C-alpha cells in the first residue's frame, strides 16, 4: 500500500512539473535572459520558443542532468554520509556540495556566483528533506528536469 502511495506521489509530481513548473521555469528563464539579471549573472540570451522541435533536445538534457544530479546528491551522497554525519549533517553536506557544483566560469562575476551558490545550497537542502520524507527521488527528478529546460535553452541560445 505504501508503495502505491509513492507511485501516486511520483505521478502527481511528474504532472505538476510538466504542466506547472515547466511553463513557470520557461517564463522565468526568458525574463532573466532579457532583463538586467541576465547581464549580471550569466550574460544576456534570448529564448526562441517558436520552434517546438527545439524542446526535444531540451527534454533529453533536462532529464539526463536531473537524473545524474539527483542520484548523485540526494540519492548516493546523502545516504552514504548518514552513518558518519547523521541525518541532518548528511543533508547539509550534500546541499553544500550541490551548491558548490553550481558555480563556475559561466558566471559574469564573483558577485553573481555567491547568491546562486547560496540558492542552490538551499534548494539542495530542501531537496534532501523531500527525499528523506518521501523515500523517493521521483518528485525531485520531475521538478529538477522542469527547472533545467530553460538552462538548456540558455546554452543553446546564448547571445554573448
Task: Describe the overall structure.
With 160 residues, this protein is mainly α. It is built from five helices and no strands. It has helices at residues 2-34, 36-41, 55-101, 110-134, 138-156. Helix 1 (2-34) runs parallel beside helix 5 (138-156) and helix 3 packs across helix 4. The protein starts with a helix and ends with a helix.
**Radius of gyration from CA coordinates:** 17 Å
**What structural category do the secondary elements indicate?**
mainly alpha
Percentage of β-strand residues:
under 5%
Distance between the termini: 52 Å
General form: flat
Write the layout of secondary structure elements.
Layout lengths: L1 H33 L1 H6 L13 H47 L8 H25 L3 H19 L4
Helix pairs in contact: 1-5, 3-4, 3-5
Task: Please give a quick description of this structure.
By secondary structure, this protein is mainly alpha-helical.
